[in-house]
Design brief:
By secondary structure, the chain is mostly helical. The protein has a domain at 273-331. It is built from 17 helices and no strands. Helix 1 crosses helix 17 (401-432) and helix 11 crosses helix 12 (257-272).
Length: 433
């Protein structure tokens, strides 16, 4: 009797933990913008709370089902590769990386199981997006943002940040946050609501182009295409946003010459000789490192630690002719600027295979749930996850809190919504039958 009472008390405490975790997740989007250390603390706390809950509830099912076994295997491979690299820093960083998949699993299984909590997070993301947009426009119109920071040296709008980070942050909030409002308005129906929804989407697209960062702009364009293909309610909205984006690019020489130079002129220059561009040299170096260590790679952060090694200059067949031997540092950076290359250099082809399989499982789970429910909000989450894991694009480091925090937050939110909608549908079907 005492044991039953103690267990009930412990479950009650974990229930309090769950409520605290829900509040922390709801405010996480704001700290993703202004306090990475606090954001990382929130992610770690939610992961730990979830582990405590699982132990108290004696629930280990989640360890064996769904996508999590693949995530565990990927983590184990990168930990092993880091141990083999004889770098204690690499090993420690690899070990604590488990906090991200644990956080996403906590959202899916425990924290965001209800509609109210899911919507609170999506609206928080929307508010974060509005803050970015407002600061971009203040900087564009007045020359500086609220903190007094001007445009970046290359002309990019920095929004609420000191450096050129508005584009990636706006991308993270664009579909699951900002587009949420136009979609909800469009679903209400009526000419007025549809007009406002269309105007808002066009305004958000205009802002993204004016920010002047190439890859986030291209990623938003890809996301708009996916929206039009998947979500019927967004087709008119997407048409307005896409048309506005095209017209804005054409008018950039007048609206924002710096953005035109970076988005159009510099992009054309890079793509005309991509292998010799900065990104081309980074990718060639990463592929060379993978060629030398194909099975387990170089461990966590192996690319940054070892890319200056002369061994990795000219050892990949067919790519040697593009290596700039007169500037061996050209292929080095703080990360590979691509999720898949980062995983490959960290854990080899074994890790790359596991990561690709994991991405397929995530996308298949979200897509199946969307196709069976046609829930527009789930569709927006599917779009941003598909965009983030598109293989042919430049990304920030997947292992950093700035990128990993956003990615796993959006992924966990999407998986939680997919589970809620499909579980509810199965229950309804069973009851009807």
């Amino acid at each position: 009797m005492i044991q039953v009472s103690s267990r009930s008390t412990a479950l009650g405490i974990t229930g309090v933990f769950c409520s605290i975790a829900a509040v922390l997740v709801a405010i996480l989007p704001f700290f993703q913008l202004v306090g990475r250390a606090i954001a990382d603390g929130i992610i770690t706390t939610v992961a730990i709370f979830f582990l405590i809950h699982a132990i108290v509830a004696r629930n280990g099912r989640w360890l064996r089902e769904g996508w999590f076994p693949l995530a565990l295997a990927l983590w184990a491979v990168i930990v092993l590769a880091s141990a083999l690299s004889h770098s204690s820093h690499s090993l420690v960083e690899a070990l604590v990386m488990i906090r991200f998949p644990l956080f996403a699993k906590a959202l899916e299984e425990w924290v965001l199981t209800g509609q109210k909590r899911q919507m609170s997070v999506q609206f928080s993301i929307a508010i974060a997006g509005v803050w970015i947009v407002s600061q971009c426009w203040e900087q564009y119109l007045t020359g500086s943002n609220l903190m007094g920071y001007p445009r970046w040296l290359d002309g990019a709008l920095t929004g609420p940040f000191h450096g050129p980070r508005a584009g990636p942050a706006l991308l993270m909030t664009f579909f699951p946050g900002l587009m949420l409002v136009p979609v909800l308005l469009f679903q209400k129906g009526g000419p007025r609501n549809k007009l406002i929804a269309t105007a808002l989407a066009a305004f958000f697209a205009l802002t993204m182009v004016l920010v002047g960062q190439r890859m986030p702009t291209l990623q938003v364009c890809l996301g708009l295409v996916l929206c039009a293909l998947l979500i019927r309610e967004t087709r008119l909205i997407v048409a307005a946003a896409a048309g506005t984006a095209i017209l804005t690019v054409l008018a950039l020489p007048v609206l924002s010459p710096p953005a035109y130079h970076k988005l159009v002129i510099h992009f054309i220059e890079q793509m005309s000789d991509f292998p010799h561009s900065d990104y081309g040299q980074i990718y060639i170096r990463a592929l060379t490192m993978l060629h030398e260590h194909p099975v387990f790679g170089l461990g966590f952060d192996g690319y940054r630690r070892l890319c200056d090694d002369p061994t990795y200059l000219t050892s990949f067949p067919f790519l040697d002719k593009w290596v700039l031997l007169n500037n061996p540092h050209e292929g080095c950076n703080i990360h590979t600027h691509n999720f898949y290359l980062e995983i490959a250099t960290s854990g080899g082809l074994v890790a790359l295979f596991l990561f690709a399989a994991l991405v397929v499982v995530w996308l298949r789970t979200l897509l199946r749930a969307y196709l069976s429910t046609r829930d527009a909000l789930l569709g927006l989450l599917l779009v941003i996850v598909a965009v983030l894991f598109w293989p042919i694009e430049s990304n920030s480091s997947f292992f950093t809190e700035r990128t990993g925090g956003w990615t796993y937050l959006l992924l966990g939110l999407g998986l939680a919504r997919a589970r809620m909608l499909t579980t509810g549908k199965r229950t309804d079907t069973s009851a009807t039958g």
